[in-house]
Amino acid sequence: MLRMESTEDPENRLLLQPWTSVCFDESTKLMIKVWFGDAGYALLLSDLSSMWYEKVDTEVIQQRSKELNKRLTAHVSSFLSRLRSLICPLLEGEKSSSTIFSCQLSSSTLTLRVKSELSGLPFYWDFRCSAAPVKMVFHQLVQPLMAMSLVLQSQVQELASLLLRKDAEIEDYRESGATLSRERLKTEPFNEESFLQTFETKILPQACCLGDGHQFTSNLKELYVSVSQKQARAACKRHWEGDCESPEHASFQDLAQKAADLPNEEKKTESQSAAAQCTQDTVVPSSQTQKVHLPIAKSKRKKAKGLFG
């Protein structure tokens, strides 16, 4: 997931990586995203009050490796491969007893120190990040979050509309004489105003507690990546319609073109969702059939016609 082509602008490639919450110690919880290329990497970290960034190339890696690992002599690709193998488990919530991470931060700098092994020898690395510019903060975090909020709002409105239609369908069944065989399955008609009031008083305060270090769930990570891909395509379209001669525009066009070809994981997710939907529409397990059909029975006082034909 983290390895991309090195011909792209690291900042643009970094945009397509999801944010992950990482706890380095009891007092240091950060959101992190990272991109590794063939000749360098880009790293972004934030504690929701500041953001730090580092982008290095082959020359910096060679100099830093000599400074921190005087007994080790290896190609840049070996150091990058080792760093990738150390960071990836960290992003997945796995901690290795043989690898130690420590973090020192201030408002303007952040140093993430790594202590591990390479070829049986001690291996050290420092990610030396400086304060990210405001434009990068907006591009990598604020803008995608604003787009995500609009997407989620549209999703809630669509679900509310669906519930109202379901209530109308159930009411039609009742008026036709159908009744529930199990009273405990009865639900009250959906009231959007009451739902929003309950959400604001009970659910919203819990959602605003960001101190637990789990700001992005797996679903939100996927949504972030999807939104970033859509933004890349939109930016590509705007550049095509305007002046695309500058190197920056050309780089972002290449990014958007590759973003248009959905990653295998996204294609797989879409195909699985389609297959699951197809299966759900055609084959219903017996337990689910009972849940759908058994609770509704025809009233003895009135004969229902054409309800389930």
Any key phrases for this structure?
9 helices, disordered N terminus, Dna Repair Protein Xrcc4, Chain: A, domain 1, 309 residues, two-stranded antiparallel sheet, 19% strand, 7-stranded antiparallel β-sheet, alpha+beta
What's the short story on this structure?
Helices cover 50% and strands 19% of the residues. It has nine helices and nine strands. Helix 4 (134-175) crosses helix 6.
CATH architectural group of the domain at 10-135: Beta Complex
Class derived from helix and strand content: alpha+beta
- Model regions low in confidence, pLDDT < 50 over at least 5 residues: 1-7, 243-253, 255-309
Instruction: Report the major sheet.
Output: 7 strands, antiparallel
Query: Mean of residue pLDDT?
Result: 76
Q: How would you portray this structure in words?
A:
- The chain has nine helices and nine strands.
- It has helices at residues 10-15, 58-68, 76-91, 134-175, 192-207, 218-241, 247-260, 264-282, 286-293, and strands at residues 20-25, 28-36, 41-46, 51-56, 100-105, 109-118, 121-131, 178-180, 296-298.
- The longest helix has 42 residues, at 134-175.
- It starts with 9 loop residues before the first helix and ends in an 11-residue tail after the last strand.
Write the layout of secondary structure elements.
Elements: H1 10-15, E1 20-25, E2 28-36, E3 41-46, E4 51-56, H2 58-68, H3 76-91, E5 100-105, E6 109-118, E7 121-131, H4 134-175, E8 178-180, H5 192-207, H6 218-241, H7 247-260, H8 264-282, H9 286-293, E9 296-298
Antiparallel strand pairs: 1-2, 2-3, 3-4, 4-7, 5-6, 6-7, 8-9
Helix pairs in contact: 4-6, 6-7
